[in-house]
């Protein structure tokens, strides 16, 4: 996912230098750009070294998963479509997780829509403006044919197809890095990648994480505020990554695998809460290919929580969402 009206941390902010009593736990933060979006890290009970390592780790994952890099695992595998390609273990893991999401959503989430994304006009990086590597792929809807071989360490993209981790990569990366921060000694970690957020451990200044979901109808306001002890939360929508064609029509990057065209079913943004950010992100992506009521029903079926803002400015929620309201 890319920058969207996001869920932002409202607690855990670091105090001004020299203002915090020495007895208070250390809260460290870092804002930067990675994976084509704004990133925000909050680390409780950690060190600057841990924070720097987390930034480096995210840049490493980006180098393996970006479709805009000639040497990434994804680009190399796409260019070798039909052939097993050796990739990093984390790449195998995120693709395997994407295949699970494909099965969970009955194909509504599908990483093989890249040819349609390119055809819709999303051909250049939104941050560096560099063009995506040229691919000969033309087919979409091949999610069932992506093959991960852990024993051989290979990924096989279906012949004639190409994959893109844009609908799950940031959530999966946030999960990985948040878990690694706590495993390395931090007491709590929040990793926010363009609105896809992983929460692991606990903040030192509150019993839970306090978050606000930005309202796409009114810039600078929240449509809801939440409390979460841990887990993942993600937002997807059509308010950014939009571009205008010569004929005046506007297009966005969220493709419906069933039609090969940008999804347009009445959802402006959807936020999902789940046990991890990868699940939250993949279900927000899938939900964008459904009507608001069908999206709410799907989220509810899986026991997740969601808030939808529709194109006609209505706000819909699952009953489970109310459990998280602050």
Question: What report would you give on this structure?
Answer:
The protein has 326 residues and is an alpha+beta fold. The protein has two domains: 7-13 and 26-44 and 172-324, Roll (T-fold); 63-156, T-fold. It is 26% helix and 26% strand. It contains seven helices and 18 strands. The protein has helices at 48-65, 73-79, 89-104, 114-120, 169-183, 277-287, 292-301; strands at residues 7-9, 27-34, 37-44, 85-86, 147-149, 154-156, 188-193, 196-201, 209-214, 222-228, 231-237, 242-244, 250-252, 255-256, 261-262, 267-274, 305-310, 315-317. Strands 2-3-7-8-11-16-17-18 form an eight-stranded antiparallel β-sheet. A three-stranded antiparallel β-sheet has the order 1-9-10, with no helix packed on it. Helix 1 (48-65) packs antiparallel against helix 5 and helix 5 packs antiparallel against helix 6. The radius of gyration is 19 Å and the shape is globular. The two termini are 26 Å apart. Mean pLDDT is 90; it is low at 1-5 and 12-22.
